[in-house]
Amino acid sequence: MYCSNCGSELIKDAVFCSKCGERVKSIESKEKERKNEDKNIAKTEVEIEYQNAGQGRRFINFLIDYYIVSWSLSFLAGYLFPYADEMALWIISLSFIILYFFLFETFTGKTLGKLITGTKVLNLLDEKPSAGQVLIRTFCRFIPFDAFSYFSSRPVGWHDSISKTYVAEKVSN
Questions:
Q1: With CB atoms 3.0 to 4.6 Å apart as the test, which of 10, 37, 96, 130 could cross-link to 73 if both were Cys?
Q2: Is 30 exposed, middle or buried (0-12, 13-18, 19+ CB in 10 A)?
Q3: Reading across the β-sheet that carries 119-123, which strands appear in turn?
Q4: Contact by Cβ (8 Å): 27, 13
């Protein structure tokens, strides 16, 4: 199956295109949704659906996670290891940043920035991403100019497209 927006090949049962971020649904997914809707008619709960988080929210996540949390952790490393040389502090700070993103996104799907903005990380099947996907996502953040990948014709970050994840916000039906 191919994306109707950019024509890229989609992974099986994907909900979002890994290249352009466009929401896609296969015929099988639509049939599953109809069956689920029939089952859920008797339920009174509001069903939650996710959509791609906007660039504004993503930018706020970036500011909170990188400039407030990551650099605060790096600054804290200087106090925890006052006699470490510059290279050791750099490695410790980098380790804190990697652990911050990996642990929070693996176990909760949210970093502090995502918690504040009401967004979370999902894989292309609208499920919690695997630890492997989060690890790839975390290391891809260090690709030079990753932040500028949002200014392309397809505003999807490289750390999203490579790890086959996306940042979603809740939308009530």
A1: 96
A2: exposed
A3: 48-52, 165-172, 119-123
A4: no
Residue pair 69/100 in contact (Cβ under 8 Å)? The answer is yes
- pLDDT of residue 40 exceeding 80: no
* Distance from C-alpha of 18 to C-alpha of 39, rounded to nearest angstrom: 30
Angle between helices 86-107 and 131-140 (to 10 degrees): 140
Distance CA 134, CA 141 (A): 11
Q: Lowest-confidence range among 37-51, 91-105, 138-152, 157-171? A: 37-51
Q: How many contiguous H segments (helices) and E segments (strands) does the chain have?
A: 7, 3
What's the predicted TM-score (pTM) here? 0.67
Distance CA(121)–CA(108), nearest Å, equals 9
Separation between Cα atoms, residue 80 and residue 76, nearest integer Å: 6
154 φ, ψ (degrees, to nearest 5): -110, 95
Nearest CA to 60 among 140, 123, 115, 136? 115
In the block, residue with structure tokens 């790890």: 163
The token duo for 96 is 């804190």
